[in-house]
Design brief:
Strand order of the largest sheet: 3-2-4-9-6-7
Strand content: 15-25%
Largest sheet: 6 strands, antiparallel
């Protein structure tokens, strides 16, 4: 937006370089020619003074004090004044009328004095934007005046120019008919451009009021400020609107330049949604707005002249920053950023084309003369289209958001329906209480568990539901204190007087700003009964194991005690044999008896050890881990004998079981393919039953 500041900056430089002051460049006094216009000869010179000088003193200047130039140029901002000496010579045979005008319309003071070569004053005019009761010898917003030259007539024109704006002294000399055409064309083009800008402003203002979008309000503020800025910059404002207010006109341009910076920075920030797509760039926009506000506050202290210099410099650098921001956001593919950047470049091209054509670098034609306003109009149209596209994108996003919301609502409704079905038909009891004790919901399982037909009957019980649990108040207190209540055992008293053992889990959560206690109740009566049965069976199993261990220990103790006694007796015999051998009294008969006794004892010990080994093997079979139920080929007859021998050994000596005799007869194949461990268990049971019942 601020690229228009380049125009001000280019035309406010302290004099143009040498290439810009060469023939055919900016600042020349253009003499228009056609077949009906006599040829004029013109010479130009200027003189600068820091102080106000009268015409009489200027006429006393020596020729060496004047700076002669082929063309008049732009000489930047200055506190002094410039005097222009323009000499015209008519070489035609008849008199002719010419309009001499400044190309740039804005000058504070323009005093024109027309003298003959002899020094006789022919005419004078006092013009400028700060002059009250301004004299306009020609109806033109530019400082203009008419010169009628007779045959071979020479005139000297002294023009005094001063003001706070840049000293752009470019002039042109036009035939009266051509000047009238130029005025009409300017009025037509300017009216059309202003009309388009006003239409865009009013149209978007209506949209801003209807949809209340910040971007539209900022767009309206920007375009309206731009219109005022162009009115001041082109002189149209003073010429058409506030002709009788020169002081207001002096301050209008620096004020509106500062005001324009604010919507220029804020509008793209909202248009491109910088906060969403590039939040790190926000300080740049806020800094520009802060600088603009500080500038407007300091404006009364700076003065109009210094303010214009400052605002041009700030706007120039600000325009570069905003251009880089637009390019950066376009590279990031931020929506509408490309349109914004294109509009920026169009305005840039339009504003730069005018000074370039004045400098002679490009052809001067209708488009370059009005390029600044044309660029502004195209920019306003493109930005309005960008706003419309942004609204379209936002509308599409809202439609998508509505669709997504409806889809989510449908999913939520389905989930709620599924949850309600799960709640109603869950195989555990579920309920909800408020912290005030109000029972909100109960499912069917809990109602039936408590002895009711339907959940609505339980809801009528309300807070009294806690009385049905033996520790209901204690559990509720823990839940209210937000303590963890997980799988706590409780006894539920049913309405028919029966009781059920339950596992209770409670949790507190907030639903729509209301604290709710949710509970889950599982009937564990069968589980508790099964647990009791399991405990009884475990006790019986342990008693059986204890009895078995005791019996095995007792059975092992007898042969083991016999072996210990036998070992002790053998030890005594060895000592006695050793003593006799030492004394030399060991006889053959004694030694023979010793050997016979030892063999007898060893036989007893071997038999006892075999019994102990069989008992250990029998004990190992008690363990399920040792019961290897594997199919194999084995000798069934031998397998049965081993089992019976083992039982005979265990029962040998017991009352009623002395001298047990058994005979085993098998038929069929000697070896069978079956499960030896299983057969051992079967034969064990048969033998035990025989001893007990036979």
């Amino acid at each position: 937006m601020w690229i228009r500041a380049i125009l001000c900056l280019l035309l406010s430089m302290e004099g143009l370089p040498a290439w810009a002051q060469s023939p055919g460049s900016a600042g020349s006094a253009v003499i228009a020619q056609d077949s009906n216009v006599p040829t004029l000869k013109a010479s130009y010179a200027y003189w600068y003074s820091d102080n106000k000088t009268s015409l009489e003193n200027v006429l006393l200047l020596d020729a060496s004090q004047w700076t002669k130039v082929d063309r008049l140029g732009s000489y930047g901002f200055t506190k002094g004044e410039y005097w222009i000496h323009l000499s015209l010579e008519q070489s035609a045979l008849s008199s002719s009328s010419h309009i001499i005008r400044f190309v740039h319309p804005v000058h504070d003071v323009v005093d024109v004095h027309v003298l003959t070569k002899s020094g006789e004053k022919l005419n004078e005019w006092h013009m400028g934007d700060t002059v009250r009761n301004i004299q306009r010898p020609v109806q033109d917003k530019h400082p203009s005046f008419e010169i009628v030259l007779d045959q071979h007539r020479l005139v000297d024109i002294y023009i005094r120019v001063s003001g706070i704006n840049a000293m752009r002294l470019t002039m042109e000399v036009l035939p009266e008919t051509q000047h009238q055409k130029s005025i009409q064309t300017t009025m037509l083009v300017s009216g059309l451009m202003y009309g388009i800008l006003l239409v865009m402003t009013l149209y978007n203002f209506g949209l801003a009021v209807s949809i209340r979008d910040t971007s539209y309000f900022l767009y309206v503020g920007y375009v309206f400020s731009y219109i005022l800025f162009v009115l001041c910059l082109t002189g149209d404002g003073y010429y058409y609107l506030w002709t009788d207010s020169p002081n207001f006109n002096s301050w209008m341009l620096p004020i509106i330049s500062g005001v324009l910076m604010i919507p220029t920075a804020l509008f793209p920030m909202y248009l491109l949604d910088v906060k969403k797509y590039a939040p790190k760039l926000l300080p740049i926009f806020y800094s520009i707005v802060l600088i603009a506000v500080c500038y407007l506050i300091a404006l009364p202290f700076l003065g109009a002249a210094e303010s214009l210099k400052l605002v041009n410099a700030v706007s120039f650098f600000g325009s570069i920053v905003m251009l880089l921001v637009g390019i950066y956001l376009s590279i990031k593919k931020v929506p509408i950023a490309l349109i914004y950047t294109v509009a920026w470049f169009i305005l840039l091209a339009g504003l730069v084309a005018l000074p370039l054509s004045s400098l002679g670098l490009i052809e001067s034609n209708f488009f370059t003369r009005y390029s600044n306003m044309l660029g502004g109009v195209l920019e306003a149209i493109l930005l309005s289209l960008a706003l419309a596209k942004r609204i379209g994108l936002e509308r599409q996003q809202r439609i998508e958001a509505i669709k997504q919301t409806l889809k989510l609502k449908e999913e939520v409704s389905e989930n709620r329906k599924m949850f309600q079905e799960l709640f109603d038909y869950a195989p555990i009891g579920m309920f909800r209480f408020t912290t005030a004790g109000e029972l909100v919901a109960v499912n069917q399982f809990l109602a039936e568990l408590m002895g009711f037909e339907k959940p609505s009957d339980v809801v009528g019980v309300g807070a009294d539901m806690r009385l049905l649990f033996d520790n209901g108040y204690e559990l509720a207190k823990k839940a209210l204190n937000k303590e963890v209540v997980t799988d706590q055992e409780s006894v539920l008293t049913m309405i028919d007087g029966g009781s059920r053992t339950c596992s209770v889990t409670l949790r507190m959560y907030t639903q729509r700003d209301v604290d709710v206690i949710e509970g889950f109740i599982t009937d564990i009566t069968e589980r508790k009964q099964a647990q009791k049965v399991h405990e009884i069976m475990e006790k019986e199993r342990m008693a059986t194991v204890e009895q078995l261990v005791t019996g095995v220990a007792h059975e092992i103790n007898t042969p083991l005690g016999n072996n210990i006694t036998s070992v002790s007796h053998i030890s005594e015999l060895l000592k006695e044999v050793d003593s006799k051998m030492q004394d030399g009294t060991l006889s053959k008969n004694f030694f023979t008896e010793f050997v016979t006794d030892c063999q007898s004892l060893m036989s007893i010990m071997t038999s006892n050890l075999q019994k102990i080994s069989s008992l250990v093997q029998r004990f190992k079979l008690v363990s399920v881990n040792q019961m290897d139920i594997v199919k194999a080929n084995f000798n069934f007859h031998q397998h049965a004998e081993d089992v019976f021998e083992f039982h005979s050994f265990l029962n040998d000596g017991k009352k009623g079981h002395q001298d047990i005799k058994f005979n085993i007869t098998t038929h069929g194949h000697e070896f069978i393919n079956s499960y030896p461990a299983a057969w051992r268990i079967i034969l064990d049971q048969l033998f035990e039953n025989t001893l007990i019942h036979a």
